[in-house]
Write a structure and sequence with these properties.
The protein has five helices and two strands; from the N terminus they run ααββααα. 49% of the residues lie in helices and 9% in strands. By secondary structure, the protein is mainly α. It folds into two domains: 36 residues; 81 residues, no CATH class. InterPro entries: Cyt_P450, Cyt_P450_sf. It comes from Helianthus annuus (Common sunflower). One of its GO terms (molecular function) is monooxygenase activity. This is Putative cytochrome P450.
Length: 136
């Protein structure tokens, strides 16, 4: 690394070039990183909220963890509270996965009876495959 030392009228010219190089480096890093972070954030928010217009209402979660930090030990009680607030069908994210909760026995019967082909063709979760050694 070569530093060019210039004399300044005030007599403090020794550290000017080093400070200017560091300032230029910091400006370059900020110029590159800020637009990159804005682009990543906008892509993530667009993909996160892309299909929410057709979903049932539900609570908003935090990025990456969804609604997990707000759930308590008694999950059925929390779902009942959310059913009073959002209705018998609501959606929420647990981690990065979207879940639709049906909280009424009558609606469960309708969903199971009328939409059985939709649910029958779904791939099983990885945990089910791991617990059953891949046997459906």
């Amino acid at each position: 690394m070569i530093f060019i030392i210039q004399s300044s009228p005030s007599g403090h010219g020794g550290g000017k070039s080093k400070t200017n190089n560091q300032d230029q480096f910091a400006c370059t890093i900020l110029t590159i990183s800020i637009p990159t972070l804005v682009l990543v954030w906008s892509k993530w928010t667009l993909s996160y909220f892309k299909d929410t217009t057709r979903l049932p209402p539900g609570p908003y979660g935090l990025p990456f963890v969804g609604y997990l930090p707000f759930l308590r030990n008694n999950l059925h009680e929390r779902f009942t509270e959310m059913a009073h607030k959002y209705g018998p069908i609501f959606s929420l994210r647990l981690g990065s996965k979207l879940h639709v909760v049906v909280n009424s026995m009558d609606l469960v019967k309708v969903v199971a009876r009328d939409m059985n082909q939709t649910f029958a063709n779904r791939c099983p979760p990885q945990t089910v495959l791991a617990n059953t050694y891949g046997v459906n």
